[in-house]
Request: fold
Amino acid sequence: MEAHPPRHVTLGLFIWMASLPSSPIILATASSCDFPAIFNFGDSNSDTGGLSAAFGQAPSPNGETYFHHPAGRYSDGRLILDFIAESLGVPHLSAYLDSVGSNFSHGANFATAGSTIRPQNTTQSQSGYSPISLNVQSVQYSDFKKRSQIVRSQGGIFETLMPKADYFSKALYTIDIGQNDLTAGYKLNLTTEQVKANVPDMLGQFSNAVKQIYAVGGRSFWIHNTGPVGCLPYSLDRFLITAAQIDKYGCATPFNEVSQFFNHGLKEAVVQLRKDLPQAAITYVDIYSLKYTLTTQAKKFGFKQPFVACCGHGGKYNYNSQRRCGAKITVNGTEVLIANSCKDPSVRIIWDGVHFTEAANKWIFQQIVNGSFSDPPVPLKMACHRTENP
Ligand SMILES: *[C@@H]1O[C@H](CO)[C@@H](O)[C@H](O)[C@H]1NC(C)=O
Ligand SMILES: *[C@@H]1O[C@H](CO)[C@@H](O)[C@H](O)[C@H]1NC(C)=O
Ligand SMILES: *[C@@H]1O[C@H](CO)[C@@H](O)[C@H](O)[C@H]1NC(C)=O
Ligand SMILES: *[C@@H]1O[C@H](CO)[C@@H](O)[C@H](O)[C@H]1NC(C)=O
Ligand SMILES: *[C@@H]1O[C@H](CO)[C@@H](O)[C@H](O)[C@H]1NC(C)=O
Reply:
């Protein structure tokens, strides 16, 4: 039996249909999706403990605001993914790689900080990128789906730790990855043109991963595009940028252009995926615009110092790649924290030079949840409904 939608939902869809005559149509009778689980793929923007489990915990003061201890996240608190989970009534996701205390009854997180779409030809110690690239995450997901059901069938406590079989087709599949593929090119001293030339391969591998997840049962996809890397202290500090390349707000134009180039291609790849995967509902979410707006109009939204990391160690951006957030030195046999948090992370956007504060993540989540930055413009709760072109 299909429940009747609340009146305001129906109304919202009618307004949307009226204002976008050539756009896909959703049945006005569509009901909220009731996602029982979330499976996430990505990098540090959505890592809830994967890299920490495999390569060492994100140090204190990460986690200080919400968890009050390091919690596998590169932020003072919750990530956009945590807010998505909360709003769907699903517990925060355990990292697939975390063998201590994890509970996968409502999904699993395959993201690790530093992940790229394409496997890198450098090791993690050489370049800092995670070896758990998207293709690996996709293999882990397939393996998880199969083995979780074998474990679940043992009953008892095992049954409460693994998702029910039907959750895999009903779940929301969230993906946020690509940023590191772009910076990895620059780290190899490629020019912007050379980085752009690699984007089709990145997108081809991205689409393959989505197809593999679909083949193993995924149906509802919520895909974040990549942010303006040229506004991050990390990029501004790390790469050679001329004054002429800085826009009127302070962001590095070439890096933002490459992000936009990637996003343009990602949007086209999503259009193709909708054709290739007849039962998939795929929502593309414009995180770039929100992060750029927040950074360049920080004051308007109650934030301060958009180019200065809250947690870091000095310099123009309070960012030092050798002494990142949580860095310690030993003075006379005693460990001293030299890259600590700022006084009030709740009014800051950038946490550690690369990642966003909980306050910024919450603001972004509040903008995306109702679908106003999505294509098609469906709210999060309706993202299981495939839209058809008339
Ligand atoms: C790794 O090297 C192979 C062979 O040269 C190349 O085809 C591929 O694009 C490289 N990958 C990356 C991420 O640079
Ligand atoms: C796992 O999480 C679910 C949902 O929160 C809960 O019902 C279940 O008891 C948990 N299992 C264990 C062993 O804690
Ligand atoms: C990139 O260029 C810098 C500066 O010239 C050099 O130190 C570094 O080794 C180069 N990196 C690679 C991967 O070629
Ligand atoms: C380290 O110990 C020495 C000897 O006790 C002292 O002179 C020095 O000031 C100490 N350094 C710091 C940074 O505390
Ligand atoms: C969506 O939410 C944002 C933030 O609360 C709000 O500014 C915007 O007007 C909303 N858009 C729609 C279409 O409801």
Remarks:
- The domain at 33-303+356-382 is CATH 3.40.50 (Rossmann fold).
- Residues 192-215 form the longest helix (24 residues).
- The CA atoms of residues 35 and 171 lie 5 Å apart.
